[in-house]
Design goal:
Layout (H helix, E strand, L loop, with lengths): L12 E5 L3 H13 L3 E5 L2 H11 L3 E5 L7 H9 L9 E5 L6 H8 L3 E4 L4 H12 L5
The structure holds manganese (II) ion (MN).
């Protein structure tokens, strides 16, 4: 196998925070396909724990989550020493409701509005991490 066959996500860790099983399977599936190592969390408190343990290169953060919502989980992760520089992409369900502005205020670096095509997620993750994607 030549170096050109290296998958773009190889060696990169993504924390996927999403309480919807269907979305989680789709996003985890496509990210894994592109070589990323994916850890999943299904609520905001679990996201904070996983961020510290798994040390992801990037976090995909659903905003509407049980236990602790995505805005508060983002605020707390961004306040942790050594994690404040990890890019967090908010996954917003309602484009018109002010969720985006609140996401950026909470410290998210970027946002995408659902429904999101899986390949679009990969493209955005690669763009933010500066990875080559063919
Ligand atoms: Mn949700």
């Amino acid at each position: 196998m030549s170096a050109n066959n290296k998958k773009p996500g190889q060696g990169k860790r993504i924390l996927l925070v999403e309480d919807n099983l269907h979305n989680r399977r789709i996003f985890a599936g496509v990210l894994t396909h592109y070589g990323f190592e994916v850890e999943e969390a299904t609520d905001g408190a679990a996201a904070i724990e996983a961020a510290q343990r798994f040390q992801p290169d990037l976090i995909l953060m659903d905003l509407s989550l049980p236990v602790l919502d995505g805005w508060e989980a983002t605020r707390r992760i961004k306040a942790i020493d050594g994690l404040s520089d990890r890019p967090i992409i908010a996954l917003t369900a309602h484009a018109m409701s002010g969720d985006r502005e609140r996401a950026l205020e909470a410290g998210c670096d970027d946002y995408m509005s659902k429904p999101i095509a899986p390949r679009q997620v990969v493209a955005e993750v690669c763009r933010i991490l500066g990875l080559e994607r063919d």
